[in-house]
Specification:
The complex is a heterodimer of chains A (about 110) and B (about 500). With about 110 residues, chain A is an alpha/beta fold. Chain A has two helices and seven strands. Chain B contains 15 helices and 23 strands. Classes of the chains: A alpha/beta (about 110), B alpha/beta (about 500). The interface of A and B includes residues 43, 65 and 88 of A.
Chain lengths: ~110, ~500
């Protein structure tokens, strides 16, 4: 797994964890109408999701058909949104999380051999 | 930026027959995605507002259910007439807050009208069934009964049409409703609610709740007084709602997305096919669950199709939907635009060939809006641009050696909403209808453009249940079976035996 949170994401997740200590982060396709591939929920994901591991105290899962599954590298950022409806937990704080793919250069820089 | 004062509206909540501000008095801005100008405000409802809305719906439900169905239908007939009278005004609101060209918005409003009128007709039809009894002088039949309170949670891409798909059948069958529209498009919902009131909907029968889905939507679906949830939107949210619904053992209708194939056979009429593909891929800037986001073309005609399709794509006029002649509007939001741009990068990284488009716009007329060029890739079905729902003006042309392989490619996605084949061979057409894993199959029509009196919905991860047609009556009613023995005779199996 190569998933990283930006400092903004770390701060937002800490705020969500204050009310939802058991937090799960799901990476999945949006389906209809959604702008983001990142979702937070406070109960274990459906069995269709595969565990990627833990990042900053959050269990991360991915849908097996999404983004080539485990092979990808992601950076997860946060942005302010009043209107991007979702039941993902961070929306209650007026934010959403968003997915950025990390370049090979960034991966090499973050994870030197 | 700034305000477009001519269009400025403040949308309120409708709870128990009264239009009012949110409980905490807050509102949120609604913007025009073509200009980023603020076009109105909408009440930011709270969890307490959600609770009050459900309570109002619950209190009104018994009286509404006892109202004869033809009388309930009168409200929908009047609503339909009002929608027709105000078509231009509603279409303009749709364009202002969603972005689609005005001509397309007008068409959407016609669909809202059609839906109201179709289900108004159900008030005098709503067939159930009578079955033969095993005994003489015994009548066996079923009657439809409403389920109670329905939470209708709808998306922004068809803000007048999709709400009506759910509101009309739910109401005519005797349910009451709490309607939570998408936060990008609350003003269309507010106008619809005003027209419902003008049409005579009784207090509490329809309640409107605007505000953040993560708060008030969550409050709605966790309210034990809600008996049915109808949701169209994100796959994640649909799964989440479905898990909650399982805990309550409650009925649901879910429409969650698609990655729809349009198969082009070698014998297809090319002019027709190109025109249909263009509309199916790029109308509403590709923001449709049924968009032709994969065009699977038999190899003998892939070059010819691609050349003509790309040329036609490059002729599309992209701009502010309120302007005459514009054919493709903006994406609904900046994150939506960003997501489209990311998927273009992903497609390029994966080795797809960019045939046209692939960028936003920097000219003065479009740089403030969320515009993206209609984009065509040539790629393969295993790429992310062929598997994920981009929800933007991006499509991928995928070659297939024959129709058998085309069917396999068509089905090789997690979704199954709409499918389409273009061919002049009826055998091939019906074989495709049979083979394609989708809730809706089109022959010689792109996977877009449903009719309100036929069922609509998906298989696989595209959703659960069916909207529209008679099927929607099943979503919002239970069938109670009634046995009437008018023989007044003792039955042979009663005690004592022998």
């Amino acid at each position: 797994m190569d998933v990283r949170f930006t400092p903004r994401t770390q701060g937002l997740i800490r705020r969500v964890q204050a009310t939802h200590p058991d937090l799960y982060l799901l990476l999945d396709d949006t389906g209809c109408c959604g702008p983001s591939n990142v979702f937070l929920q406070d109960r274990p994901p459906a069995p269709v999701y595969e565990a990627l591991g833990q990042v900053d105290g959050v269990d991360v899962y991915i849908h097996p058909t999404f983004a080539g599954g485990r092979a990808q590298a992601f950076t997860i950022d946060a942005y302010r949104s009043e209107t991007d409806d979702s039941f993902s937990l961070e929306t209650a704080l007026g934010h959403r999380l968003t997915l950025g793919r990390r370049t090979e250069e960034a991966r090499a820089r973050d994870s030197p051999p | 930026m700034g305000k477009e004062s001519a269009a400025e509206t403040t949308g309120k909540l409708l709870i128990a027959g009264t239009f009012r501000d949110a409980g905490e008095g807050e509102s949120f801005g609604v913007i025009n995605p073509a200009t980023r100008a603020t076009v109105g405000q909408a009440a930011r409802g709270t969890e307490e507002d959600a609770r009050e809305a459900v309570e109002a719906a619950r209190e009104a439900q018994t009286g509404w259910a006892a109202t004869p169905a033809p009388t309930r239908a009168e409200v929908l007939f009047r609503l339909g007439e009002l929608i027709r009278t105000h078509q231009e005004e509603i279409a303009r609101i749709v364009t202002l807050e969603e972005g689609k060209p005005l001509a397309e918005a007008r068409g959407e409003v016609v669909q809202a009208y059609n839906t109201a009128m179709y289900y108004a007709g159900e008030g005098r039809r709503m067939w159930s069934m009578v079955v033969p009894s095993e005994q003489q002088r015994k009548l066996t039949f079923s009657v439809r009964q409403p389920l109670g309170v329905v939470a209708v949670i709808t998306p922004w891409n068809f803000p007048s049409m999709i709400p009506m798909w759910n509101l009309a059948p739910a109401l005519v069958t005797g349910n009451t409703v709490v309607f939570k529209p998408a936060s990008h498009t609350p003003l269309t919902a507010f106008r619809l609610a005003e027209l419902f009131v003008e049409a005579g909907i009784p207090e509490g029968v329809l309640n409107l709740l605007t505000g953040p889905g993560g708060k008030i939507g969550e409050a709605l679906v966790n309210n034990p007084d809600v008996d049915v949830v109808a949701f169209t939107g994100e796959t994640f949210t649909g799964r989440h709602i479905s898990e909650i619904n399982a805990r309550f053992m409650r009925r649901q209708v879910l429409e969650l997305g698609g990655k729809n194939p349009m198969v082009v056979a070698a014998d297809a009429k090319m002019d027709l096919t190109v025109a249909a593909a263009l509309w199916s891929a790029f109308s509403n800037a590709g923001q449709k669950c049924t968009a032709a986001s994969r065009i699977i073309v038999e190899e003998p005609v892939v070059d010819a199709f691609t050349k003509r399709f790309v040329e036609a794509t490059e002729r599309l006029r992209v701009g502010d939907g309120l302007k005459e002649g514009v054919e493709v509007g903006p994406l609904v939001s900046e994150p939506g635009l960003d997501k489209t741009k990311k998927y273009v990068e992903i497609g390029l990284d994966e080795g797809a060939k960019l045939l046209t488009g692939g960028k936003g716009y920097e000219d003065a007329a479009r740089k403030e809006g969320f515009f993206h060029q209609p984009t065509v890739f040539a790629g393969t079905n295993d790429m992310r641009i062929s598997q994920d729902e981009i929800f933007g003006p991006v499509t991928n042309i995928i070659p297939a050696p024959d129709l058998g392989e085309a069917m396999e490619l068509a089905n090789d996605v997690r979704y199954g909403l709409a499918s389409s084949i273009y061919t002049t061979d009826l055998k091939a057409a019906f074989d495709a209808v049979s083979a394609m894993e989708a809730g809706v199959a089109f022959v010689n029509q792109g996977p877009v453009g449903v009719e309100v009196h036929a069922p609509f919905g998906g298989v696989k991860e595209s959703g659960y249940g069916r909207e529209l047609g008679e099927a929607a009556l099943d979503d919002y009613t239970d069938k109670k079976t009634v046995y009437v023995d008018y023989s007044y005779e003792k039955q042979p199996w009663y005690f004592p035996w022998g």
